[in-house]
Amino acid sequence: MSGKFRVVDPEKDIAILRGLSSPIRISILKLLHMSGPTNINVIADTLELPQSSVSTNVRALVEAGLVETEARNARRGTQKVCRAVYDELIVTFKSDAPTDGDTIDVSMPVGLYSVCDVTAPCGLCSIDSIVGLLDVPASFLEPDRMKAALLWFTSGFVEYQFPNNANIIGSELDALEFSMEVSSEVPGTSADWPSDITISVNGKALGVWTSPGDFGDRRGLYTPGWWALKGSQYGMLKTWTVTRSGTFVDGVRISDVVLSDLDLAQHRSIRLRVEVKADARHPGGVNIFGHGFGNYDQDIVLRLRRGSSTAQRKRLDGSDFVCI
Predict the structure, then answer these.
(1) Nearest to residue 151, comparing CAs of 127, 179, 176, 178?
(2) Does the global pTM surpass 0.85?
(3) Tens digit of each residue's pLDDT (9 = 90 or more) over 130-155
(4) What is the rounded end-to-end Cα distance, in angstroms, of the chain?
(5) Among candidates 95, 146, 120, 85, which has minimal Cα distance to 299?
(6) Exposure class string for 158-168: b at 16+ Cβ within 10 A, else e
(7) How far apart are CA 78 and CA 41, in angstroms?
(8) Could you give all domains of the chain from N- to C-terminal order, each with its CATH number?
């Protein structure tokens, strides 16, 4: 995938929203996203729709700027081949009101780790297929690992190297956040399979969060159809936040590690390590879900925050968090 995306302004891009307003057109876009350029006949056969209906809806998608078509030579005459223009559409509601602070976000594909050391059972897969060999840790070194949309291992770690954009912020940070979809890992699945997952930044452990299980009761919203139902289907979207007063997971305090402990000014990069220690109380493995798998269509997101108002700073410092 090229990763081409389009930010949609709902006040201006009415044609795009109209193009997305039909379940048939959504099905066509999903098919093109998964299969690549496809001709009208194949689309009709795959979706079990009349060719005339597909042609009409493709025409609407072309008018909306969401699909491009071209004529290609076939054994009998020519065929019309359709291609999705964008891999992602992001609908955003813009506001002219001033914001309380600035943020910088960086999204990291789950397969783009810089260092790894994992134990089997383990594996990786893209949205199309398995990467390398299952349960062979050396497969985590495969060049195609960069296409991974799901990875799992029993113990060990993967470490991601994010650019340190703190200097771009230009003033002292209020918070550093990481967001990712994760679960435990067990052969098959089990909703009751706790796993202690340790998150570290630049070698400093932020604390342990215990995943309750490995979820497979239903297919993940974005999990591709070829992935067996007996495998891990989705995780929980969790956010680790480091502020000036401590570290939190979804607002629940897990440690006293604060921003100054990370000494970000002394590092060119921000190194995130996701780890399951072999000697953990609950060494239940980990699944990390990325774009195209699970219930949340996102990769690992790093967010840097600064310049919050007093009210926002209070919330980020954890004083407004409710622990349950």
Answers:
(1) 127
(2) no
(3) 999 999 999 999 999 999 999 999 99
(4) 41
(5) 146
(6) bbbebebebee
(7) 12
(8) 5-91 (1.10.10.10), 102-316 (2.60.120.260)
